[in-house]
Amino acid sequence: MASGYTIKIRGLVMLKNYFKIALRNLLRHKMNSIINISGLTIGITCCLLILFYVFNELSYDRFHKNADRIFRINTDLKFGATELALPVVSDMMGPILKKDYPQVEEYTRIYNIGGYVYVKKGNQYFNESRMACVDSTFFKVFSFPVLYGNKNYALNEPNSVVITQSIADKYFGTDNAVGKYLETNIYGNTLFKVTAVIKDMPDNSHFQFDFLFPMKTLQYEWGNFVSSNFHTYLLLKKGTDYKKFEKKFEEYNDRYSIPYAKKVLQIKSKEDFYKAGNKIENSLIPITDIHLFSKRIQELSPSGNIEYVYILSAVALFILLIACINFMNLTTAGSANRAREVGIRKVLGTERKNLVFQFLTESILIAFIAVVIAAVIAYDILPLFNNLVGKKLDNNVIFSPPVLVFILVLPVLVGIIAGSYPSFYLSRFMPGEIMKGKLSRGSKSGKLRSALVIFQFTASIILIVGTIIIYRQLNYIQNKNLGFEKEQLLIINDTYMLGNNVNSYKNELMKTPGVISATVSSFLPIPSERNFSAFYTSAEDISGSGLTMQRWRIDYDYLKTLGIKLIEGRNFSPGFGTDSTSIILNETAVKQLGFADPLNKFIYTWVAGGRIKTYRVIGVVKDFNFESLHQNIGPLCFVLEPSNGLITFKVSAAKIPSIINEAEFKWKRMASGMPFSFRFMDDSFNKVYDNEKRVGIIALSFSLLAIFIACLGLFGLATFLIEQKTKEIGIRKALGASSFSILFMLSEEFLKWIIIANLVAIPIAYYFMNNWLNDFAYRISISWWIFVFACGITLMIALTTII
User: Fold this and answer.
1) Is the CB of residue 792 less than 8 Å from the CB of residue 758?
2) How far is Cα of residue 798 from the mean position of the Cα atoms in its chain?
3) Interior CA angle at 198 toward 193 and 202, to 5°?
């Protein structure tokens, strides 16, 4: 026992001595220490910030108690020439799956009300958009904490509502609003009793709602097995393999969906349905995968992208490796300064393993100092980072278990990665070689050091090329001719609040100087939830001639206001009384319907009550991009029907401030108490690409930091090289060498490394960025000058650093 205790004491004393020596060496070689700690600090700070973002993206919906057993049902439809990938199913699917299949423990449905609904507080009205109707089983599937009220009964009654804590504070000034009433126009002017208050839904949830109404509130024609309007979630029983359960959907569709489709479409058999090229398929997606892996239309909130998580994780890794490589290079480059110490200690009997441990201790100490500084910086600048990435990461994220574990492990990890080669390199010095001076040229040699510098700049160049391409693609998107005019279009939101005054408001504002034209509609060429309808070229045979396309209700002035070009036929006109049964198609719809000469052709669709409505084609518009540029242009039709959700004004840029003031003044007069809001078409369009913009900004910011870290190491290496070549430089100067020739001699080796790095980086950058661009239906080509520019920038920065 005594000997074991003595060994432990000796070990602690030895460890203490290691840290003393390490600290002494840090203070002795101040420049080297500052460069090492600065490089590691910047690298680790970047790494921590990116990891905060990545951890947040990966954490979506994992807070639910049974997250591993919750799945959403997706639908894939093919009807005629149109295919749809939807995150919604029919109203009947959830209840029937629960009844027919024992693997389903529970189900719940969400019906996204969409758009803006006003809620009244005293004499004031507020716009609210985060509203949904849900089943009474909502809280049996999802784990949203209930602060007040009973979650088991809160959604049972039709005129009740569950609200979030922030909404309770907003409308009632208290957390506990249970028993109070809210007035809203969700389905007419109705009072809803608050039956429960829940905590605000976390930001890392793939849906965000502030108002939950019971499904009984919904005015819906129930019992439709084909329409897809409900986000439906299943809680499967423990031990259920969801991939095996997916195979049950074919049986479900054969029993329910296909028979219903046969009846509606007047198809004789299931075989005829499939023979016509139609398809109804369902699948499951884990709730934890929805945010990053689902790219379906009609998602409840904008999705993330797993590719960007991979890209940013790679950036974080690159920056950390670049910082570690700096440490390795600077330590081995300065090996001659430690050679005498190693020689003396070996003569005095120090074993190599003790020397290795000593140098690793120094590395870990430097890494520890860098991690502490980096954690403080990351904590302080997190609000700025939030603005950069569009997140609401709390400062306490740094104290979350995964991040704390990472921070605790990081000094050891970085210390070992960065210090392993230098420790083994320095500890292998032999006393005899040191005395003979064979190590004085150590800074000049080292193939590994060259390879590491090449890796640093290869990573930096890949980041530069990637950033340039991302920015060029975003610029292309923002300036592409979309086939309509998105500039100088002022959109007044929620004009249904004007009631019968919609057209009066439009006409009054048309008298304002600077207003060129106006249109009332609910549909704009901005990617959003749409209205799909099936159309047929034959009224007799509607089994195989169908085309599912977007159906927009517009007025006479829509095409003129948005600058959509009519290439055949005519626009809707008050002079034609039959235009209520007329239709305008885009070029894609004409092609997919198979019309060689579309004008005056008839197409047919189902309307309420099971009737078939006939439309006559009166015009064709040039294709324009009404969806994201990730997608090809789909089929679209316009019909002349009233719609009062939005009014869009084409305005003169010089008159915009006065027009907005006039618009608000007239609004307050015609819609007293109702909230006034507006936006511009180009702003709404650009928001679609916020994700790409953020990734571009992050890539640019961290690319610059990666280059800075690499150049920091280059500065240190150049300093050591000059120290080693002081005598040589003196002799060359004495023999008449010019400053330029000496500069070239000192720079030659570094520039050679950077040129090699460019040659390695170019094909890698091309491969990955070409794959990224392939995700866009409309994309730029990768120009040769991008690589020349990246090469020139890195060479210039490196040369400036060395000089």
Assistant:
1) no
2) 34
3) 140
Residues across the chain: 803
Among 500, 796, 460, which Cα is nearest to 670's?
A: 500
Determine which helix (DSSP H) or strand (DSSP E) holds 620, and give its type and residue range: strand 611-621
| Predicted confidence band of residue 328 (pLDDT cuts 50, 70, 90) | confident
User: Is 131's pLDDT higher than 80?
Assistant: yes
Can you name the residues that pair with 134 across neighbouring β-strands? 110, 214
Radius of gyration of the chain (CA): 34
What are 511's two structure tokens?
Answer: 């008298």
**Amino acid identity of 12?**
L
For residue range 702-729, what is the model confidence (pLDDT) as tens digits? 877 877 887 777 777 777 667 667 777 7
Mean pLDDT of the chain: 82
The pair of structure tokens assigned to 425 is: 């390199």
Report the sign of the C-alpha dihedral through residues 605, 606, 612, 618, in that order: negative
Name the amino acid, one letter, at 75.
T
CA distance 370 to 367: 5
Write the burial class of residue 373 (CB in 10 Å: 0-12 exposed, 13-18 middle, 19+ buried).
middle
Both tokens assigned to 385 = 């980072």
CB-facing half-sphere around the CA of 475: CA atoms within 13 A: 8
Provide φ and ψ at 371, rounded to 5°.
-65, -40
Beta-carbon contacts of 680 under 8 Å, excluding residues fewer than 6 positions away, are 489, 490, 491
pLDDT band at 348 (very low <50, low <70, confident <90, very high): low
What contacts 86, CB < 8 A, 6 or more positions away? 74, 75, 76, 77, 228, 296, 297, 298
Q: Which of 266, 330, 418 is nearest to 33 (CA)?
A: 330
Q: Tell me, what's the pLDDT at 296?
A: 86
Q: How confident is the model over 530-548, as pLDDT tens digits? A: 677 778 887 666 555 578 8
